[in-house]
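Protocol step 4 of 6: structure prediction from sequence.
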Amino acid sequence: MPAGSTPKRERQYEHIKDSQKERGASDRRAKEIASRTVNKERARSGESGQASKTSTQDKKSAYRRGGERSHQGAQGPTKDQLYQEARKKNIGGRSSMNKDELRKALGR
């Protein structure tokens, strides 16, 4: 935790870190997730000296968003990821579909 953190942020950090450990994250990864989440919350509430635009203008807080943006880089999920999802949902004709067709068949 950064110097000058409030007791509330300290508790929040410990709670997130413990939750991540319970989910099976390594100690290092749990600390990283906790510190990133707390730092973003600090930025959103004006407690930090510097803040990125995404930290201050994002509509949802990190813990509410909960992985919503996972696998959505510049182009979204790969064709293989879409194919595997279509396979799990038993979508017929998936082997001959291209990425856009897979995306439409999955309702994305």
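Step 5 (inspection) to follow. Helices lie at 7-22, 27-44, 53-57, 62-65, 79-88, 99-105.
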